[in-house]
Input
Amino acid sequence: MRPLHILAVDDDPLIGLVISTFTRQLGHTCQLSRSGEDALALYAESDFDLVLIDKMMPGMDGLQTTQRVRALQEKSGWRPIIMLSGASDLNEQVLALNSGCDDFLAKPINFQILEAKINSFWRIADMQQQIARNNEELQRYANLEAEEKRISSFLMERLVRRDMLNNLNIEHYLKPASVVSGDLLLVSASQSNDLYVMLADATGHGLPAALSLIPLSQTFYTMTNKGFRLSSIMRELNQQHRAHSPSDRFVAAMAACYRPLDNTLEVWNGGIPPAFLLDEKGQVLCRFNSAHLPLGIVDNTLFDSTVEVVKLADENTQLFMYSDGLIEAENADGQAFGKARLEQLLHQAASTRLVNLQASLADHLGNHPAHDDVSYLQLLCKERTTPHAAPSSPLLSAPNTADNWGLQLRLSASQLQHLDLEPLITNFCQSLGLEESRQGVFGLILRELLSNALDHGLLGLASNLKHEIDGFERYRQLRSERLQALDYGEINLDIKQHRDANTNRLILSVRDSGPGFDFAKLEQASLQNDADRYHGRGLLLLRKICSSLEFRGNGNQVIAELHWANEDVAGATNGN
Output
């Protein structure tokens, strides 16, 4: 313990000298004062640890001086004061203590008792200093935590795109257990109108949990915007999490992709409670249980990114997903919200389902905060038939003149097995000069043409299989088996963009090495509004959005064209 700095106040210089000499022998420093006024001036200038003050002094006596010193201590902090007095009766002691003194010592001074009292207050002073240091350290940590939360909240606000969460097909709820949430809700749409959602629940809650989610959001938005398959996205998210987070910090996640063109729903669930596919009346059409490990537990050699695919019979179905914080939310009595209560609330009409759920949760919790983050999201699977920036007529308008460019690709069997082709090709074409406003419709056409060439041309799958009982699941299973076994065959792509004085032309030619098909029969089926039986409604949509769609050869080559007006050049020509 450091020595004490003592202020001795006594109008008798001899007593002051004796006290000063004694305290210095104990190893402390002592400063003398002969009046109350002088003592106050010294106290205001120096930081004393202990005050010894005589009661009987001319002018300002010891009681008044004590009261004034206490007033100074309101700003500088409490320090002990011992009153020295020649009167030792009980009333004198009570008067001294009531005036603000901490202890009383009668004169003549017993130096053994004085030493004991000084040592006692010395220990108290040391504890006070330790408490003060602890308080400063706690305050420093509190300030640091507040700053970290402020920055983390700022980053999360920027990384979570609120505009996408406000999508008309999305309803959501997120209540953090602390300032920063360890649950993450993400929504994104591709250029071809595929709608992706993800609910992620990181280990723990608060700042440590939130930090582990930051790398995932950017990867999710980037890959979904480009239209990557859900399985490819989840594999990349797992790799990103392992690269940027500690091994003991995993993330339970559920992701889904609704594809309006096919009216299909893809779902991947790794560690999240079962999601529900509901109809308008709240009847459960399907449950998506957790079939995979959470993100970050195993590397990509062991990671399973297989998705469940459901063909939707009704365009007004809803996918409901939630974190375990919802069913584990406890009220003041320790009662959890529970699965049974949740499922009962979900068996309601879609228009009131989530309103009633939120009201029930608020009533259950009351003023008692949930111990974990609570989040849920509902995706309305409402079919749309046009992509972003889709054409309203075969001849589109564009604000800028497009450049001439071309791309030729030959895709082998091994590449078709492992590559997510549509986003890769679309992104490369954008680098060559494909306008951003054309990416959505370009990706939609490319996906359909590649799918037809691979599924029907190389794998020999028949579309009418989808219309049988459980046919869609059988189609998907058979496709996966044949694709894994594919050891020969190829698809050739020839993509060109050309402009002249008035018009831009984008031409996509896809040719497969398969046996082809009777495209004249397809044309006849189209006239009978029955094309869905042969190659599906995708080709019907392509005929609506393409300027032209032509089959060649034995049916194993298809050429699609898009035309749009070159307004800048046209305007300049008209101006001349």
Q: What stands out?
A: The chain has three domains: 5-132, 160-381, 395-575. Confidence is low (pLDDT under 50) at residues 384-401, 530-535, 568-576.
